[in-house]
Specification:
Length: 362
């Protein structure tokens, strides 16, 4: 294999980037990826398996996932006059939007730090990504954003609501200002809506450039890969042309429809996670040398003083607990780490290891 051939034909921008790194979690308490730590009671699992037994996996799945869309509409009370687009995870929806819009000189914009895939996918489409730094307290710098909107004329602005990795909900008025000044679309990414209990869904009708994106991943179905976009038909009709046929496989269609019929179970799990988040937040705040931010998600962002971020991350890993190290990813996140809310037992293991290690670091 001649590497020259590879470097000749793969785009320089691709050669220069590295693949999205997923940490190896084997044997570790996995609190790095905002997964729901709970599974389902045995009887629900059994009826799910019964429902999958008849899946015609020799056939292509429903191309427009009609049944699943109806379940989603009911479960999340999507306004009847809004269209739905499904993706293999909301990551794929971001990709569809960007592929449909990217051309020469297209700009995509987001406040940063935020969900990294906006920038990663923008780069893959050869569009320009412009990140506007949040203020030190992670609120939107509205003046800077409005200036940048005027100067760069972004095709799409992505607002994670609440934001990952900072965990906060941006100010409603600021978001409305952005929607009203945006020349293109504003995608409000509500990946954590069940933990935030706050949404822009009801505002869809007021703006012709607002789209709401959600995912089943953080709600309990990360393994299935299902995200959706709700918004005006005029936009979604165009995005749908870029979507690959059959992008939602039959097991995902059947399983998601099944569990949406038992949505109380997922809602109870989300309520338990929200409750445990507050307990863990208070416990973290009580540890000397640790500062923790309030969260509207299923994770907590915290900082260790005196440049201990990397050592704390590695110490936790050695103690068998995997979280996310954000140190070095953005100037505002120096010595910051992100922990996903797990079961009470997992949270306790994390807390004990953290208390022990931070005691030696600070
Ligand atoms: C996790 C996450 C996503 C991606 O979710 P998938 O549906 O699993 O692709 C999108 N946006 C934000 C802000 C996230 O944190």
């Amino acid at each position: 294999m001649s590497i020259d051939k590879v470097t000749r034909w793969i785009r320089p921008s691709v050669l220069a980037t590295s693949a999205y790194h997923v940490q190896n979690a084997a044997g570790l308490v996995k609190l790095d990826a905002m997964e729901n730590p709970y599974t389902w009671p045995a009887e629900i699992k059994q009826s799910w398996l019964n429902c999958l037994a008849d899946a015609e996996i020799n056939r292509y799945p429903s191309a427009d996932a009609t049944v699943l869309k109806e379940s989603l509409r009911t479960a999340f009370t999507i306004p009847a006059d809004m269209e739905l687009l499904l993706g293999n995870g909301s990551d794929e929806i971001i990709q569809i939007i960007m592929l449909a819009m990217a051309g020469q000189n297209t700009v995509f914009m987001a406040p940063t730090p935020t969900f990294v895939m906006y920038e990663v996918i923008a780069a893959a489409t050869q569009a320009r990504f412009v990140g506007i730094p949040l203020q030190r307290d992670f609120t939107l710098d509205t003046a800077a954003l409005l200036r940048a909107i005027r100067d760069y004329q972004p095709a799409a602005i992505f607002l994670a609501y609440p934001n990952n990795p900072t965990g906060n909900l941006f100010d409603t008025r600021a978001i409305i200002d952005i929607i009203e000044h945006a020349p293109g679309i504003v995608v409000v990414d509500e990946a954590y809506h069940v933990f935030a209990e706050s949404s822009f869904l009801d505002r869809l009708a007021h703006y012709d450039n607002l789209l709401i994106m959600r995912t089943m991943s953080k709600f309990g179905l990360a393994g299935l890969r299902l995200g959706f976009l709700a918004g005006p038909a005029d936009w979604l009709r165009e995005f749908d042309k870029i979507r690959l046929p059959y992008n939602i496989n039959i097991l995902t269609q059947l399983s998601t429809t099944f569990i949406l019929d038992h949505i109380d179970l997922l809602n109870e799990q989300a309520a338990a996670i929200r409750h445990d988040r507050e307990i863990l937040c208070q416990a973290l705040a009580a540890i000397p040398g640790i500062a923790v931010w309030p969260s509207a998600t299923n994770f907590l962002l915290f900082r260790i003083e005196q440049g201990g971020g990397d050592r704390l991350f590695n110490g936790l890993k050695q103690a068998g607990v995997l979280i996310k190290n954000l140190h070095g990813s953005h100037p505002l996140l120096a010595d910051c780490l992100r922990v996903t809310i797990g079961t009470p037992e997992q949270n306790q293991l994390f807390l004990e290891a953290l208390t022990h290690i931070s005691h030696h670091l600070t």
